[in-house]
Amino acid sequence: MSTVSPTGSPSAGYAARVPQRRKRPTIKDIAEETGLSSAAVSYALRGLQVPPETQRRVREAADRLGYEADPIARALASGRTGTIGVLCSSLEDLWQQGFASTLGRRFLAGTRNALIVDAAADPEREVSLSKYLLDQRVDALVTIPVDPASPHWADAARRTVLVAVGDPLPGAATAAEVVFDNGLAVADALKTLRGEGHTEVLVLTPGPKLRRHRPAEKIVRELARELDVTLRVRTCPNALAGAAEVARSALAEQPRPTAAFCLADSIAYGVYDAARDLGIGIPEDLSVMGFDDHPVSRLLTPSLSTYRWDVDIVAEAVVERVGKALDTNRRSKRTLVTPQPRHRDSVSAARN
Amino acid sequence: MSTVSPTGSPSAGYAARVPQRRKRPTIKDIAEETGLSSAAVSYALRGLQVPPETQRRVREAADRLGYEADPIARALASGRTGTIGVLCSSLEDLWQQGFASTLGRRFLAGTRNALIVDAAADPEREVSLSKYLLDQRVDALVTIPVDPASPHWADAARRTVLVAVGDPLPGAATAAEVVFDNGLAVADALKTLRGEGHTEVLVLTPGPKLRRHRPAEKIVRELARELDVTLRVRTCPNALAGAAEVARSALAEQPRPTAAFCLADSIAYGVYDAARDLGIGIPEDLSVMGFDDHPVSRLLTPSLSTYRWDVDIVAEAVVERVGKALDTNRRSKRTLVTPQPRHRDSVSAARN
DNA sequence: GCGGTTCAGTGAACCGCTTCAGTGAAGCGG
DNA sequence: CCGCTTCACTGAAGCGGTTCACTGAACCGC
Q: Footprint of strand D, using CB within 7 A?
């Protein structure tokens, strides 16, 4: 998780303090030690075109001197950094927090690492951050897009290995896409609510510009028509406090919706909060459904009905796709992740 | 948040794919455009010892060519990266997730960025990750230490600007320390519980090696003796699922504790989970207190009594300290952050 | 008109590693 | 023994900036 600004005035940050250039051994020192050229050492350290015996000698000398390769010099010379950029639409979203941390933890078991940044639901920020990551020469860029339709993705795809998570990026030649089958979850949710007799449904969706569930919105509307459900769609921040505020005003309207369908668990938490303030009982007066299944959702009273996108499954798919794209230079097809319904206690039959 | 392995075999990650060396303009191109030397351009772009008029000319040319400085080359040449390393003891901890994301978001408003990594409560991992960050030439290293006593911090302090969050690092010449006054919170918690008549208290503390609250443990024991409270201290993972497991076994013992004091909200969530499984009512049968005040804690039933360490306050203090250390090369004294008690509904009088 | 500053700008070394073209020696088949 | 390939390794040119020592011109007071 990380980084604030993309570029900023390049002058700042270059102040007084001279870095402690503690003389760390370089490849040249090893060359001297072993009587080889620095080129040979470079090859040997990477196990390239050098006989095993020499490799051993070099590695031994390296260990003896406490040599550790300088990733910066290496990146400059080779054009590769071993770093994967992860650009999240909003790290306020608890699902994304978990995803980012899981991804970072397991990223390609050892050799690469992840640089995780937060677009904070802002499309402009998203563009500048992705530029920032490209400047940092990330070998691949994993994104949960704020705005999948942005033209700049095409650019990014040209400059690096681009992997989309959540929504596909229609305009870009992505190396892989791990897409959520939002439609399935949304359909299930609406049918569930309708089955319980709810016809006035409040839909809270992250935004305004956060599009993580954009395709879901279309589906929601169509399905609502089919099922004869009246929808009140509100966009709101994907975080407890902001969502609560929106929910408070939405729940004060007449006729009051009898169910709320939230396209993120964090938002559902906000609804719980608002309901408590307003003296609205869940699920008697208001049924609530979420989206994500954050670990805490089970614990609420009543426990939250929601749809789980298994973080581990998604992370594994991403890691595998990135690996394949980087190693074989082949793009893979789209992976569809299906939601796992978690029907719990926050939904009950509509009164009337 | 990020990165998996510190070094790993350097050979891997260097595979087939040749990086798209799209010819981006360099400083040399600007030099040609303007008829200046590349040195002059370098100075001008950074606003150094060059008259305003020339600066303008250079910047104009840079814009025209779409020039963007290469941070890697810059880092290699200058020894400074503009990146701050943030090493969290455990990003499973919800407080740390929030802290990391806040820190990343506001880090030094523009010019620097944060590289956030997760030690996953493992002291060895912590050492190797901090080496990794130093290799990446971070300008400063902010750490929530797993093991404040580790000798390697002294080393890190020598190599970069080191800022400790949570616990002080006794052995290291840190540039700043933002320390939590755990003692205050712990004392308040124990007194509160004792005041309600609890004498059998289960203490769940993150670990086993996670020392974020180590000083608190000592205080807890002393105070317990004073107050004549029997303590049962258990270390457990700082995450809902792991904590629940420990809690389940601890709550099955006889005599059953009448109160649980958890040194992280995530752990308290685990206790809620376990209590529900075991049919133990909160707060009638078991009082629970947490530590952190995660946004969700208010929402649980009953709402969790806990101690808030305001993420924004801590993040702001850290940002300010880092800035000062980097710009003026002066270390600042220790900042003590005091907890804000949030007494809510998860504590009640002990029966009997 | 002269020594001394300041100013604007230059040339080249350098950061530490990668990589390409090439070299001398050994090994090989005939 | 010759020509050819293979092997083990080297020299040097980058990668794209930063920085240091220095220069020539303008300017200063006297």
A: A 10, 14, 35-40, 43, 49-51, 54, 73, 76-77; B 21, 24, 26-28, 38-39, 42-43, 45-46, 67, 69-70, 73-74, 76-79
Q: At residue B175, what is the residue type? A: A
B200-206 and B230-236 beta bridge pairing: parallel
Q: Are A105 and B4 within 8 A, CB to CB?
A: yes
Q: Which residues pair with B84 in a beta bridge?
A: B114, B140
Would you give the distance in Å from CA A86 to the centre of its chain?
A: 7
CB A323 within 8 A of CB A114: no
Rounded-to-integer distance, Cα A263 and Cα A307, Å: 9
CA triple B322-B325-B331, angle to 5 deg: 115
Cβ-Cβ contacts under 8 Å, B18 against chain A? 79
pLDDT, tens only, B256-307: 999 999 999 999 999 999 999 999 999 999 999 999 898 899 999 999 999 9
Residues of chain A in contact with residue B97, where contact means CB-CB under 8 angstroms, are 1, 97, 101
Ranges under pLDDT 50 in chain A: 1-22, 108
Q: Would you state the pLDDT for residue A352?
A: 62
Phi and psi at residue B341, to the nearest 5°? -65, 140
| Closest-CA residue to A213 (of A141, A288, A148) | A148
CA B318 to chain CA centroid, nearest Å: 10
The dihedral formed by the CA atoms of B309, B311, B314 and B318, expressed in degrees to the nearest 10: 150
Please name the residues in contact with B36: beta carbons below 8 A apart, sequence gap of 6 or more: B30, B44, B54, B58
Distance in angstroms (rounded) separating the CA atoms of residues B144 and A227: 52
The pLDDT confidence band at residue B144, using thresholds 50, 70 and 90, is very high
Is the Cβ–Cβ distance between B142 and B85 less than 8 Å?
Answer: yes
CB contact under 8 A, A107 and B73: no
Record the pTM.
0.77
Residues of chain B contacting residue A296, judged by C-beta atoms under 8 Å apart:
240, 269, 296
What is the spatial distance, in angstroms and rounded to an integer, between the CA atom of A60 and the C1' atom of C26? 27
Q: Rounded CA gap, B272 and A299, in Å?
A: 7
CB of B10 under 7 A from strand C?
Answer: yes
